[in-house]
Amino acid sequence: MPARAYWQGQIRLALVSIPVEIYSATRSGAAIKFRQIHEPTGKPIHYEKVAEGFGPVDPDDIMKGFEVEKNEFVLLDQDEIDSVKLESKKTLELTQFVDASDIDVLYYEKPYFVVPADDLAEEAFIVLREALKRTKKVGLGQLAMRGREYVVSLKPCGRGMVLETLRYADEVNRAQSYFRDIPDEKPDNDLLELAEALIEKKSGAFDPQDFHNRYVDALKDLIERKRKQKSNRKIIDTDESGGRSASNVVDLMAALKKSMEKSGGTSTPAKPAAAKAPAKKAPAKTAAAKPAAAKKPPARKRA
Questions:
Q1: Is residue 106 helix, strand or coil?
Q2: Global pTM?
Q3: Which residues contact 142 (CB under 8 A, 6 or more apart)?
Q4: Is 214 contained in some domain?
Q5: Where would I find the Ku domain in this sequence (predicted)?
Q6: Is 144 part of any domain?
Q7: Less Cβ crowding at N or C end of the chain, within 10 Å?
């Protein structure tokens, strides 16, 4: 467990207060971080705090300003901001309980682990955790952290609980403005059945270990190749076969059938032979095409 909690306070349910600590449940260590470098000298780029018409300034002279009118600011220092009294700075009061399905996925922002602050808090913590499990509810409240007050949800997670910050309603764009041009029509039933069969064939339990960041892996490989090369030439990876032209017209039925065949299934119970026949002929065509391609280069050399 990290040495320092992200937030310390109490969860309050009616007259019951439970001292807790909150720790970040995620990390971004997998990302590749770059620094800006001045190419002629190879030196890192640094940034200076400057005042317009004055030049570089002392960090101790910097305050936070809110623009009330054009070029007119109300200045506040950090102590004044920290002194704002807000009960949710130290207390998360659970004011409502809802079904988890009632919260749209768009509202979830960032998860945190919640643990009891000490041995005395454990009993009440466990009671609340088990009550949420039995009722299959999610607790809602508001919590102030690092200069902002959040709407948060609280739900059981193993022996502990997970708190998730939620976006406010005005922070979420209305989906209708993006989806309104999509036709409201029923799909072809045969296509739908094929798609459902393909989904069923590829269904399984989620295991996050099955996925890794391929972009980060590719960047690491590029960095290693660049480090080993003696010159400072550019290394540009081009993928001639990747991607599909926007003008390509895909036969959806054929594509779904082919996908089913590749995944080891059959497209439809009524037409197993028709679905398998193209799969047997395809390798023969490919094999015939390869020797022809191999003979072309020698022909050019003789010429």
A1: helix
A2: 0.68
A3: 88, 92, 93, 95, 149, 150, 151, 152
A4: no
A5: 54-182
A6: yes
A7: C
